[in-house]
Amino acid sequence: MMEIQADLEARMASLGIERFRRNALEAREDGQATRSRSMQQVLDVVIDPTASAILKFREDAGSGRAGRRHSAVRFFMGIDADVLAFIAAKLILDGYAQEQNLTRLAVRIGSTVELEKRLTKFMDENKAYMKTVQADLDSRSDHFEHKRRVYMHLLREKGDDWDAWTDRERLLTGLKLIELLSQATGLFEVETTKMAKRVVTSLAPTRRFTDWVATLDMQFEVMSPEYLPCVVPPKDWTGLTGGGYHTTAFPYPLQLVKTRHKAHKRALQAADLSRVMSSVNAIQRTAWTIEKRTLDVLKALIDRGHEIAGLPPMIDDPVPTKPIDIDTNEAARKQWKRAAVQVHNRNRSMFSRRMLAIKTKAIAEEYAQYPAIYFPHQLDFRGRVYAVPQVLNPQGSDVSKGLLVFAEGDPIITPEAKQWFLVHGANCFGVDKVSFEERVAWVHENSDRIRACAASPLDDLWWAEADSPFCFLTWAFEYDRWLHNPWEVFVSRIPIAMDGSCNGLQHYSAMLRDPVGGKAVNLVPSDKPQDIYAEVAKVVMDGLYYEAMMEHHPQWDWVRMDDEARRDINLANTWGAFGVDRSITKRPVMVLPYGGTLSSCQKYVLEATAKKLAAGVRDPFGDDLFPACNWLGSRVWSGIGQVVVAARLAMGWLQDVTRRISDEGPIQWTTPSGFVVVQAYPELKIGRINTTLLGSRFAPRLNEEVPDTIDRRRQANGIAPNFVHALDAAALTLTVNLAGSQGLDKFAMIHDSYGTTAAKTPMLARALRESFVQMYSGENVLETFAREVVPDHLKETIPAVPMVGGLDLSKTLESPYFFA
User: Which one of 60, 499, 581, 711 is the catalytic residue?
Assistant: First the structure.
């Protein structure tokens, strides 16, 4: 098998090269070469010297010094040199792989400059309207020709006071820009060739340009390997490099920690990472295999092409037929355009999902022949563990996870193992907000239907209605086999997933012993799982009821109320009737530990409400949906604060401390697993080239990190999510090591979702609770953080750590729904 593995690794390197070449070739053949990484770098480099040449040309032409004043200079006025350079460079580079007739190219560049100036003038006169149009168009297309046609139609439709350039003026403008770029960079030259009786003048790349692009292509090719699973156990990590894959097929060895910061690399070299590496090695030594029945179903559904079970449709939706009177009926034309835009947007969004599904299927088909496959893992800068293969892996999509089962299973013998197996089936379907007993009962009640799906999954598609359809289907296959031979000892190979209850808030509630937040996220035992999203929704609804009832208060006079008070009462009544449930509060609560803000809360409320309206719920808001959602978002934000007290306090304290010490340099701290985190967001030197027609271009030379600087704002914004992510990574590391020391050798780990076989799930459940409680039973992690990151001369300026509450954390050991 090692010989096969060596061949696979060689192919991984070549696949990256093939993918890069294919993408670059498609971009160049499509006349959009600057989509490729090589040409993006060329574009970034040529803008600066070309802009300098344009500035000098304008200066010389206006100086009055001797020399012919080029007639194109007046068309260069009123537009930034960077924009002119960008337009010329992009259009020249986009078409360099095709023969470029000099006259046609020059006219195209001149026309683009004219349209850019014309649009800028129109935008200055119609700022609000054009801002909406530009944002909408940028979100739908980045294709130059499409944008040009849309903007030209808009200008004709709206009418603008523009003195159109002549073809000669466009030609002169384009020729001058081509000349300036060619002279400033030496990358292009004018060639004259005879074809029959005609003389053809074209713009051709120089040898310097082709050699440069070839070198860039070669560099980017080898930097983009396409990592795939292994067919032998990955190489253990014993240091910061050299783990995972076995051969030297890749140009650079895999890094244990993905970080570019030199200070972080030095800190990691000095740290004791033995526990971290032991955990990663145990995870990547887990042997998996492809569940062939699930793969067969996936292949059949993709062949059918229907949108089902989370799979995208395999063909684009047809664009609506144009109305017969589209040229004369403006209302019909606008209605058709709106419908067509929706179809185009949906088709575009489906494309990447379609490619992911097809690629997942292809990799699974290839690896289905092997009895065992493995996934190398590495860490991000906070210590979070990730599978290296990107498409098919145990941390991937529902399709990816449904295709993978452990290569070897464990027999289901004990009542605990049996319960976990049945609970997993209910969880996959979406029956996960009730007690374990109710979940098991749901499985028994639906046993016949489950088995019917397993027997004929392409005919009985009830399984496709599950929250995680392919995971549920794979479980259903095992469930059916189990009941088919009830007298035999059944060996289960599916990973039983136990998910934390809003895990970020679990960590914040534990570190500050918050009894309110701790109860809401299942840190203490209860008969049924607590639902913090529903709890926040209830608090919000209670507040709405109180506000709505104020109009009936004897001391309130509707006539004398100000407009804001009347608005609040009306909106409270409207939202109360509409209903605020967990679907509206889920995202705002979920992202809170990771840097959620009032603004993001309002955004997620709007998205959730729009989703409800799209599903057919009656719309009481009309054109006032946006302000109504902003209003409710502020109430949801307040409701979160009433339920989630500790997280707000801890996050605020972390941000305050970080602001005060940011001038001292990078922030470095050690997590309970021994992993060292270095947070160092430098200031960015940002420049932006704005063009209406071609969009905004950020170039590395204009958007670069300033050495030896720290951005106080970015540091403060990043500390809360990075701190809690580092803690959940530490909890996972400690759990894997503890469970491994007790004999567990199969791990399906996804940050806040831990899995193993049903037979070993009770062992993993105990280990994760013991590790979590132990992690927070010693010194307060916030105190430890402050001691590490705050220099002595600033200790007096740092606010005290938030007060610890009265939560008895030992009760988490007995909490059944802590991870469930």
Answer: 499
- Residue 569's domain is classified under what CATH number? 1.10.150.20
Instruction: Tell me how crowded residue 293 is: count the other CB atoms within 10 A of its CB.
Output: 16
Q: From the candidates 44, 217, 752, 760, give the one annotated as an active-site residue.
A: 752
User: For residue 805, is it left (φ>0), alpha (ψ between -120 and 50) or beta?
Assistant: beta
Q: Does residue 228 lie in a domain region?
A: no
Radius of gyration of the chain (CA): 31
Using CA atoms, how far apart are residues 713 and 718, in angstroms rounded to an integer?
A: 9
C-beta of residue 790 within 8 angstroms of C-beta of residue 798: yes
Cα–Cα distance measured from residue 373 to residue 389, given in angstroms and rounded to the nearest whole number: 12
Q: Which of 185, 359, 247, 281 is nearest to 6 (CA)?
A: 247
- Token readout for 701 is 């030379």
The residue behind tokens 């009656």 is 618
Residues 37-73 as b or e (16 or more Cβ within 10 Å = b): bbbbbbbbbbbbbbbebbbebbeebeeeeeeeebebb
Question: C-alpha distances in angstroms, 406 versus 286, 346, 351, 734?
Answer: 8, 36, 31, 22
Closest CA to 480 of 506, 513, 456: 456
Is the Cβ–Cβ distance between 2 and 233 less than 8 Å?
A: no
Please, which pLDDT band fits residue 256 given cuts at 50, 70 and 90? very high
- Spatial separation of the C-alpha atoms in residues 670 and 434, rounded to whole Å: 38
Do the Cβ atoms of 758 and 809 come closer than 8 Å? no
φ/ψ region of 603 (left if φ > 0, alpha if ψ in -120 to 50, else beta) reads alpha
The answer to pTM > 0.90 is no
In a domain, 216, yes or no: yes
C-beta atoms surrounding 448 within 10 Å: 8
Q: Is 480 known to be catalytic?
A: no
Identify whether the C-beta of residue 57 lies closer than 8 Å to the C-beta of residue 67: no
- Count H helices, E strands: the chain? 29, 18
Is 625 among the domain residues?
yes
Task: Output the pLDDT for position 696.
Answer: 47
- Strand-pair partners of 667: 679
Number of domains in the chain: 2
- The 10 Å Cβ neighbour count of residue 665 is 13
Question: Residue 652: CB partners within 8 Å, gap ≥ 6?
Answer: none
Task: Determine, yes or no, domain membership for 765.
Answer: no
Structure tokens at 177: 């820009």
Range of the domain at 567: 503-649
- Pick the last residue of a domain from 603, 632, 649: 649
499 in catalytic set = yes
What CA–CA distance (Å, rounded) separates 725 from 595? 11
220, 37 Cβ separation under 8 angstroms: yes
pLDDT, one tens digit per residue, over 430-450 is 999 999 999 999 999 999 999
Three-point CA angle 772, 774, 641, nearest 5° = 50
Give the Cα separation of 494 and 410 in Å (integer).
10
Is 586 designated active site? yes
- Of 401, 586, 746, 760, which residue is the catalytic one? 586
Confirm if 508 and 419 have CB atoms less than 8 A apart.
Answer: no
pLDDT higher than threshold 60 for residue 791: yes
| End-to-end Cα separation, the chain, in angstroms | 38
Q: Rounded to whole angstroms, how far apart are CA atoms 731 and 276?
A: 11
Q: Quote the Cα angle for 781-785-788, to 5°.
A: 140
What is the structure's pLDDT at 67? 46
For residue 378, what are the β-bridge partners? 386
Query: Other CB atoms closer than 10 Å to residue 93's CB: what's the count?
Result: 25
**pLDDT 10s digits, 745-771:** 999 999 999 999 999 999 999 999 999
Question: Which three-class secondary structure state does DSSP give residue 200?
Answer: strand
What's the CATH number where 34 sits? 1.10.1320.10
Number of neighbours of residue 260 by Cβ within 10 angstroms: 9
Distance CA 647, CA 504 (A): 9
Domain closes at, from 221, 243, 266: 221
Q: What is the mean pLDDT of residues 515-538?
A: 94
